[in-house]
Task: structure prediction
Amino acid sequence: MPDTPLKQPVVERDIAPGVLTEYLTDDWAFFVRSARAREKFESPYQAVEVHDSVPFGTLFRLDGHFMTSERDEFFYHENLVHVAAVTHSQPQRALIVGGGDGGSAEELLKHPSLKSVTLCEIDRAVIEVARKYLQQVHRGVLDDPRVALKIEDGFAFIRNSTEQFDLIVLDLTDPGGPSTKLYTREFYRACAARLTPLGALTLHVASPVAHPERVRETLGNLRHAFTLVTPYLTSIPLYGGMWMMACCSLALNPKSLSAREVDQRIRERSLRDLQYYNGDVHRACLALPNFVRALVV
Result:
């Protein structure tokens, strides 16, 4: 069967000037008021915006969608990275596709075993904006010698690479525009081929409340490439609340660790500045409400 297309809501504009409006669906949205617009321009790939806001501090948008902010980025990046990275016994090489804000790279490099992180971002403007405005997100890791920046198409990089990675993090925009082909079975299979035998891929999926069909379709596509697809939940204020992520592997299972074992690995690795993730959170994020279980079977 061909890849299932992921339906996107109709593109809407902000409900008023300075009222940054995030549409979860055509009929459901929330807003953050901009205190000051600091950047607003079109890159070759997408509309780029940076705003100051009262609740989130510096806030970053692409094509009218919230990407990250300096005050809530840890809700997203810690959960996207550490569920798989802590489960892995000794990750050494990692690849990030997207993630030009540097937040995922910053979390990965907290693990002392990480020798290299390749960050493949298609849009140079995202890197430039991050360097200028998002220091509280990346904390300088974009200049860390262990980070190799690749300004190129993520699909082409994966398809042409012969490298093997212990962790692949898909830190992408929602499906649409330059990221559309990065949600296909073909891309997931290409990623699986670049993983070491005990390696894992993680990605954000969608809101199981607002986007149930996207959840079903994305997990279905992932299962064509990976033996183990483990969905898990977190809460991301800037995305409107409950959000699904997934850990995908041929062998690595985040359910294999107890809360005590996770906390022990956090201590042994001296993982610092964790504001969200711990052993109890690791186990709790894997506990799915019944309505979510019905989506992911």
